[in-house]
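Posting this for the archive.
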Amino acid sequence: MFVLQLNKTERDYLLSVLKKQRGLTSKQLLSQLRDADDVFGIAMWADDDIRTKLQEYEIPDTPQNIEAIRRSYYARHIDDLMVESGWTVLEQAVSELEADLARNA
C-alpha cells in the first residue's frame, strides 16, 4: 500500500504532474484533487500488497491467485470500505478531541 499525506505544496505539485498525463485515471484524480484543495491523504493498493497478504497465509502468490483476489467482492469494493474506515478514524479523532476539550474545560 502506498499512502500520500499531502501539504499544499505537495498537492500542487501532484496536480501539475497529473495535468501532463492523458489517461482516464489521471483525469479523474486531477478532477477530484482540483475540486478539493484541502485533500490531505490518498491511499493506493498494488498487486505487491496482495502478494504479501497471500504469503502471510502461505497461499501461492500466483498471477491467478492475485487476479482472484482482485475480482473478489472486497477488492472490487475497496473504495467503499476505505471510505467507511476513514470515517471511523475521523470519528475517533473527533471523539478524542472532544474528551480532551472536556478535560481541559
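The radius of gyration is 18 Å. Strands lie at 2-4, 42-44.
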